[in-house]
Amino acid sequence: MESNPVLLESKSSPLNLLNEMQQLRLLGHLCDVTVSVEYQGVRAEFPAHRAVLAATSKFFKEVFLSEEGAPRSSVLLSEVRVADFASFLEFVYTARVEVEEDRVQRMLEVAEKLKCLDLSETCFQLKKQMLESVLLELQSFSEQHNSEEEEVEEEEEEGSAAEAKPELLDSGSVSHGVSPEGSAAKPREKA
User: How far apart are the C-alpha atoms of 110 and 151, rounded to whole Å?
Assistant: First the structure.
């Protein structure tokens, strides 16, 4: 008797794998490459796993796959800031990283240099959300400003209308309930 195949799939396995790789990296276990980052005199070294870097970055994949003979144990990056590369590593090992708003553009540039599609997409989406948020704030400000202008205009119109009424009464043209045309057309009768 033959049974039907069933799918065994773990929803938590990818995150567990990433978390475990991050722990191994932080402890320096099984790291097989060191990325040296030097930018404007600041230098730092980051132990990492070639497989993780190659799987998340086409730049590293090209570097590692183009090696002939013994694989290199270090890679030098000179066009990336140390803090940005540390954030890049945290992202590729955890699928998340917290950065200041003003660093999002720099992280996008790092993602493009290192050809990391996931980070690039994430930065792009965040920048889009930030832009939409700014546009909504501007629209709200503009609507508030326009409503304030309309209120001022209405107050000015009401003020000018109130000023015009006493002039009509003072001119005598509306006295005794007779319209201006009526007063000129009919002379007053004497009692």
Answer: 50
Q: What is the DSSP string of 94-152?
A: HS-----GGGHHHHHHHHHHTT-HHHHHHHHHHHHHHHHHHHHHHHHHHHHHHHHHHHH
What are 95-110's pLDDT values in tens digits? 999 999 999 999 999 9
Prediction pTM value: 0.68
Give the three-state DSSP class for 80. Answer: coil
Question: Phi and psi for 82 in degrees, rounded to 5?
Answer: -60, -50
> Which residue shows structure tokens 């996931």?
118
For the segment(s) 13-131, the CATH number from 3.10.450.10, 2.30.110.10, 3.30.710.10, 3.40.50.360 is 3.30.710.10
